[in-house]
Specification:
Length: 197
């Protein structure tokens, strides 16, 4: 059985409002976070087709901030992606039991590069597919099929864990079993119910 994990809000933290608050203070943080991270430009950063610098320049007009101010927020994203110790422990346990672990994440170049340099949990993964590197994104069917082919996996042998119901539903459409992640405890219970723990 292969277990495929999302990264943001599953293995590592993802808190856009918190990122903005730390860089610019709490006032207006939620609004600015939405303006930046819920905009199509951020999706293009994740897809690997837009640089952080270009996004910052484009966002000047709609935010009233300078490109430098915006870039400071965007560059604070990678170090904010902090591993969840409980989830890292779970990865270690699954790995020790012989489970084949893979990562499938929508993430820009700067973030995945940072995580590869600073996180030890990669030792538990046999492979990973990251949106910016393949120019495809969840919930597009192509990225799931790409993962299956690239890692020589059969959909029926895979379980995908993601905090996004839409991403899980898309995986199920290509024949991969899905678990919607809400917490470490829930994830552990669901894996145990499948006989994987």
């Amino acid at each position: 059985m292969a277990l495929i994990f999302d990264l943001g809000r599953v293995i590592v933290s993802w808190d856009p409002v918190g990122i903005v608050s730390r860089v610019r203070g709490p006032q207006g943080a939620a609004e600015l976070a939405a303006t930046l991270f819920e905009h199509p430009d951020w999706l293009e950063v994740d897809r690997g087709t837009l640089s952080l610098h270009t996004m910052a320049r484009r966002a000047e007009a709609r935010t009233g901030l300078t490109a430098a101010d915006i870039l400071a927020v965007l560059e604070a994203v990678p170090p904010s992606l902090v591993p969840d110790p409980q989830m890292v422990e779970l990865l270690a346990e699954l790995h020790a039991r012989g489970a084949a672990l893979y990562a499938l994440s929508n993430m820009g170049h700067a973030s995945i590069d940072y995580l590869e340099r600073h996180c030890a949990f990669w030792q538990y993964f046999r492979g990973k597919v990251v949106s910016a590197r393949v120019r495809m994104m969840k919930p597009e069917a192509e990225i799931y099929r790409y993962l299956l082919v690239a890692q020589d996996l059969k959909a029926a042998d895979c379980t995908f864990i993601d905090d996004s119901p839409a991403n899980v539903a898309a995986a199920e459409q290509v024949g991969i079993r899905g678990i919607v992640f809400t917490s470490h405890d829930q994830c552990r219970r669901d894996l145990a119910a499948l006989g994987l723990l």
